[in-house]
Structure prediction request, 432 residues.
Amino acid sequence: MDLQHVKGTFDILPDGYLQGDTTIFPASNWTDAEARIRGVLERFNFEEIRTPIIEPVELIARGVGQTTDIVQKEMFAFRRGDDEYVLRPEVTASVMRGYLEHHLDQRGGVQKLFYLGPCFRAEQPQKGRYRQFHQFGTETLGTDDPSADAETIAAMLAIYAEFGVTNTTLRINSLGDADDRRRFREALRTFLKPYAEELSDISRQRLETNPLRVLDTKNEREQEILRDAPRLPDFLGDQPRRHFDEVKSLLTDIGIEFEEDPDLVRGLDYYSRTAIELESPDLGAQSALAGGGRYDGLAEAIGSAKRVPSVGFAGGMERLFVAMSATGVEPSPSAAPMAFFVALGDPARRAVFKLAADLRGAEVATGLDLRGRSFKAQMREANRQRAAFAIIVGDDELQNSAVQVKTMASGEQQAVAMDELVDFLRNLSAQG
Ligand code: AMP
Prediction:
């Protein structure tokens, strides 16, 4: 059989490797980045939620929207018995399901949740676009206050700032409320009808199913036609307009720059009012680092009797890494083992096995040779693993119950009694 990962997926290995046109960072960088994202979001008072990777297909179809590309073309869906499941293509619908299922509102107050984990979409893979990718994001559930929108944006930007990714453009828009969009949709449809013959098949189809999505077109002739089309901002009712003004004014208060983009409409149906997109010129065709907005209609769309006004964003790990590479920001180096044993001869190998257990028990990171190789090969291995110390044990050392501790950086070597080794290294490791 072919030993090949599934198209559009990748392995996260101990060392970086090149796959196609982009570097997938090594596992230690992922762990480090995830911890730093958690750190930033906890500073913003978000709590973690972990939901299953599989969800009922109906949740996603309703939550993400029947007319979206995700639901129509990109779901990894499968049937088992009478039930249909899908590998989640995003996490917002799952978080809302969890919130409703467990009545999280009963904890009182606004629920501020964050998540981190894999998502699946059967898109055409390319740089920054995969079939299994990893999203982090927040959901603030149970408030329609503009401060929640502004806080979401601030948290999102704080994450990218944490990694030195500041060459970004924040675009925002207001999609208004359902009524505003209905009136806009009708106006847009009326405007576009006479051009129907000139539209591409896909846009003609969208004109019927979801005219707002025609605004996403990359087709030049269609963009030209759209130049004179009605504009969403002209259809905003009083309340959505005031909401949007307040979001913008809060952002300005905390020094966040943004561009208003009346054409920013989101592919997902449940969005209302604030729409957010964070872009980087360093990403190429897949320019979106993160996106999000308000989704006051989602809870009801998935069957809640109650409206749960909410706002959130989602960002992609892979694109964060691409942006970091492009900016020249180095990911944090992987942790190297602190001590590496170099054992000469079988009795020494036995003794070292026990010493390594003691050190690990004392929380000192420790490596050892597992193949019975030569002194030179073991020293090379200590180097390759970037050990701070090589601990050399041979017959003499066994006889004297003392080991040779070699500081790799300086080459200095000193004898340390075996029964003092744990304390010796623990002290050094406490000193960093
Ligand atoms: P969306 O849920 O489509 O708004 O996506 C939010 C973020 O997830 C995007 O801005 C990307 O950073 C990331 N993302 C979405 N789809 C993919 C994909 N197929 N591959 C990699 N990242 C993705």
